[in-house]
Write a structure and sequence with these properties.
With about 220 residues, the chain is α/β, with parallel strands linked by helices. It has nine helices and eight strands. It has an eight-stranded parallel beta sheet with strand order 7-6-5-4-3-2-1-8. The mean pLDDT is about 100. Bound molecules: pyridoxal-5'-phosphate. Pyridoxal-5'-phosphate binds next to strand 8 and helix 9.
Amino acid sequence: MSTIQKQLIDINNKISIAAKNSNRDTTSITLVAVTKGQTNIEIQHAIDAGQLIFGENYLKEALPKIETFAGKNITWHYIGPIQSNKAKAIAKNFSWVQSVDSERIAILLNQHRPKELPKLNVCIEININDEKSKAGIEPKDVINLAHKIQTLQNLKLRGLMAIPAHSTNYPEQKNTFSKLHKIFNELNEQGFYLDTLSMGMSGDFEAAISEGSTMVRIGRAIFKR
Ligand SMILES: *Cc1c(COP(=O)(O)O)cnc(C)c1O
């Protein structure tokens, strides 16, 4: 068994335990394996272990990988910063874009999503700890952007994503994730049908699951050597 396969099994077990501890069904949590910095070899190991959902941060790095594994039933999530001049290729090559944080980018993705493909699944990225240098929209602006995205025919608004400030403190991690869950609930109370709360990475996915995460994005814990 490859190291990656072992680590994937380990992460899936930990996801199940975290779900169980919160009286949640494991199947309500999707694992996105984040492959930035990984080559086709590592990705193949993960596929061999049954992982079919991957996340990438950089278009240039992602495109050759997407091409290599075309026809293998893989779902690719774009989770990195989006420059306007990359929006077209992102809209064409990914099934999901989790890092939408402006109306301008949403409009470009909508404009360039090929009509013959299913709608592009999108999440709004929120700057949940109000960090100066971080991507993501401020919580107070989320509703407006969500309404705008609803009007765009080639996009399907699925939910919210955030990358919290680094913390190794479990209660602090939970506190941040609960804020995101609250915004998620508020949107659904206002009539949005969001089903995706993308929160939790290698260092904090257990806290995220306890606060209602439906999608964890894990890189290092799967691919470390
Ligand atoms: C790199 C990255 C991850 C994975 O982080 P790990 O700490 O390696 O698990 C998740 N989400 C985003 C947006 C990332 O850029």
